[in-house]
Automatic annotation (TrEMBL):
The coatomer is a cytosolic protein complex that binds to dilysine motifs and reversibly associates with Golgi non-clathrin-coated vesicles, which further mediate biosynthetic protein transport from the ER, via the Golgi up to the trans Golgi network. Coatomer complex is required for budding from Golgi membranes, and is essential for the retrograde Golgi-to-ER transport of dilysine-tagged proteins. Its main location: cytoplasm. It comes from the Eukaryota. This is Coatomer subunit alpha. The keyword Repeat applies. Oligomeric complex that consists of at least the alpha, beta, beta', gamma, delta, epsilon and zeta subunits. It comes from Arabidopsis lyrata subsp. lyrata (Lyre-leaved rock-cress).
Amino acid sequence: MLTKFKTKSNRVKGLSFHPKRPWILASLHSGVIQLWDYRVGTLIDKFDGHQGPVRGVHFHTSQPLFVSGGDDCKIKVWNYKTHWCLFTLLGHLDYIRTVQFHHEYPWILSASDDQTIRIWNWQSRTCVSVLAAHNHYVMCASFHPKDDLVVSASLDQTVRVWEIGALKKKTVSPSDDIMRLAEINSDLFDSVDVTVKYVLEGHERGVIWAAFHPNLPLIVSGSDDRQVKLWRMNETKAWEVDTLRGHMNNVSSVMFHAKQDIIVSNSEDNSIRVWDATKRTEIQTFRREHDRFWSLAVHPEINLLAAGHDNGMIVFKLERERPAFALSGDSLFYAKDRFLRCYEYSTQKDSQVIPIRSPGTPSLNQSPRTLSYSPTENAVLIFSDLDGGSYELYIIPKDRSDVVQDEMRGKGGSAVFIARNRFAVLEKSTSQVLVKNLKNEVVEKSSLPIPADAIFYAGTGNLLCRSEDKVVIFDLQQRLVLGELQIPFLRYVVWSNDMESVALLGKHYIIIASKKLAFQCMLHERIRVKSGAWDDNGVFIYTTLNHIKYCLPNGDSGIIKTLDVPIYITKVSGNTIFCLDRDRKNRAITINATEYIFKLALLRKRYDHVMSMIKNSQLCGQAMIAYLQQKGFPEVALHFVEDERIRFNLALESGNISVAVASATEINEKDHWYRLGVEALRQGNSRIVEFAYQQTKNFERGEEQCSVKILDNAGHLPLAYITASVHGLNDVAERLAIELGDNVPSLPEGKTPSLLMPPPPIMCGGDWPLLRVMKGIFEGGLESANRGGNTEIEAILDDEEDNDGVCEWGGIGDLDLPTELDSLKVSVSACSSVFITPTQGMPVSQIWSEKSSLAAEQAAAGSFDTAMRLLHRQLGIKNFAPLKSKFLDLFSGSHSYLRAFSSSPVVPLAIERGWSESSSPNVRGPPALVFDFSQLEAKLKSGYKATTAGKLSEALRVFLSILQTIPLVVVESRREVDDVKELVIIVKEYVLGLQMELKRREMKDDPVRQQELAAYFTHCKLQTPHLRLAYFSAMTVCYKAKNMATAAHFARSLLDTNPTIESQARTARQVMQAADRNMTDATALNYDFRNPFVICGSTYVPIYKGQKDVACPYCTARFVPSQEGNICTVCDLAVIGADASGLLCSPSQVL
């Protein structure tokens, strides 16, 4: 079983796959219907409308609808786009077990405990037929996928096949149905539209499920007699073919596989079993430890199944669908249908080469895992997982008519060719590689430098060895490690054509490295990565479940094409991608490579190619514009933009004043003229500054008001008062006089004031360049295509100068400007080229936020909202008040600040985790975090110490601090993830126990409750010294209250721990001696140590085994059902009973 997706929830009673989209509906025993995207693992929506369990659910094949039926006797039809229940169908008198849409007609089929099956017209919302022949609960009913038949299963121990052809022939329009209402109501249970065709008897107990074969005249059924029966039918009769035995409890559901001749069943014995439908034998069994299975669904189109159990559901495959292939020049060798086949790319000819042994069972058709080919010796090495790992070596005859030699076999963890006539076999148990010749003889043994679980080809004589968290390249001849790289679990390796680069593919990541594993870049994908190949330009082309994408050498990526079904790339040649699909058919897909070739040319600074592509290609789109801006080429982006506002922004960013003036003239808004003036001032182009300020009426800046304001802000109130007074600014002068009070200065009499102005310039040399800039790399080629160039600026400015009436100020002629400024030719020529100005890069915190799915790293990056959303989705956390200070600590701890000069702003620096001097400057590591696991371990020890010393309040604060810090801790390995999860359980037990003990000490007037809390404290999973203290405390409280029997139980439990303190042991023995004389309890307690229980974290009452409870999704504390929806009182963070995906604290969990 290959698990693709799993959920945690209440018991799943019904499942339905969407026929086209990667969605699945799950109806829960709690009454909620969940809609999941199993491809990305996210909950899309929830539907609440039923009261009580929902047992049946089904998607419509073409409309955005699904139908549900539940214990409230209601059938509801929903529109999942609008989230509305469109209508409810009423008629059944008892629980509804299953519902199903007809694949062609507007019908819904429902089965109920009222012993009837009903067919409804969902368009007219009426019941068109009632099928009443069973005399017990009808557990399921379903339409035949092609014929006019219905099959039903009942607790009356029969399976019935119904003929609905007569009903189908009748008109199913709404009007006809309404006319037939009277007829249906008068003779509801005597309909001749549907008749029983066969009654299948053979089960010894009630039948739970029955289903049709999608193509053959077969029926499979499952029963409470723990048996699965196979039935065959023809036009006149139906009979039992065989019985499949193996389940140890009631069979819950059974179905035929959509693609293969196998039967899948699940049961209340916690197992899913796979049967060979041809041989009628059991093939495989999959078990869960504590969960009974209740429902089963088979995808109608692809190789996917789903099973619902007590605590959620799983979506899974029965086998791998990835084809094994090897590329050699123009030929592709691959395994298909027990044959080795060869596909020639040039002629697109596909031929059968030799027969091969199919590993595994023929019915499951388990395919080989890898295929390796030696072109010089014409030999093929096929490795599969059969028997724990085995390989087969085939020598292909040169003449197809020659007899094929028998294959040579062996066992190992992996097998690949490493030279012309040598191949390597991995022995996992000894971490050795056996080098063998083509006679399957061992010629050399080598010990690997790491405990590898797989090996891959890495050049002649070299192996790439994989362990759990790193890969190494090992030279077998020199026995040297040529390269090493720490990565999450690796799945596939793809080498470039020149063997200079390698792509390492994981489940959700791609790492590009050199031939010696020097790290170059890394990509993260939310959708699973399926395959990849290098093209002739050194670009890695890869596929996910639904896209073909590219990855440039610097890590930039993008989408090339959307896929309907997954494919596996074998070769990329020009604009053609050759691939194999899941049916192992060769396909050639034509793509448009212009986008990534353009980006590659920019990356490699092949600007002649960039110019050619700009002139000849249809590159456009906001994504391309944003990319060019991000990479520092806004002047290139200018040539893909028609919108004037975007052109204006790009022109300012690139320093292209000529385009900015032309765009500002077209837009003609004050804000744009102001921004143009600022940029022109920055470049030192005084004439354009003057022109822009004219358009904003900002040429003269109100000297008197400005002077007063400057003096006022500087604190020179007397000077500000004098300036305001002499220039007639009476309101401002009065306000300043009030502020000055008795210190108002007196103005001299008999003198005429005047405003001091700077002296006129003796000469003007034109523009004064304030910023030293360089000409752009695209200077010559792009200027010719630049719309609105320098000539246009001259025309705009000349027109303004000649047309005095245009300016609202009365024209530039009113200004006494120097004659040297009559011509703009000098200033225009100064900016006649496209310039590149320094552009700000992406902040490191933004890079952290975009790359990480861990809440701690999002908080360190300052993305508090994202961190809170992640914690809510992963752990159900809603109360973030205790985490506020920790968020701030993470953010401040991952940043530092440098002060250069008092007049300049501080320079922020991002602190990266694991940084070293050898780190690449172009690759950003994750943020440094102030919380780590070792700190929590130290805190745990201090909490233990405080508990031992009796400082329970202090210990509670320490343990609660640990519990509230764990969601913001990041660890590296999967082993540490398990340690973190174990720490959550440990700390939760201490927090709950200490809360109860402190509450007990506060209760002085209720001895019964004191005893109960002391007794519950002993059931917390504490360290042995602390458990002894809990036993001693409970023994003492109960003994004082004359509950001798209970006190004796605690004394006995204390002695069982072999206490090291003699006084505790002596007291316990004395209590037992006293209790032996009177083994009774004076007061009754809500406590039964013989019946296993957990303690409610809020009410502190026992929840005995078998009683309903709800849990905190983070700390797993248990609560009575009435506490659902409240904040957990143990961790004080999460919502009790909320759906959550689980703790995410390591990059190894994301990848």
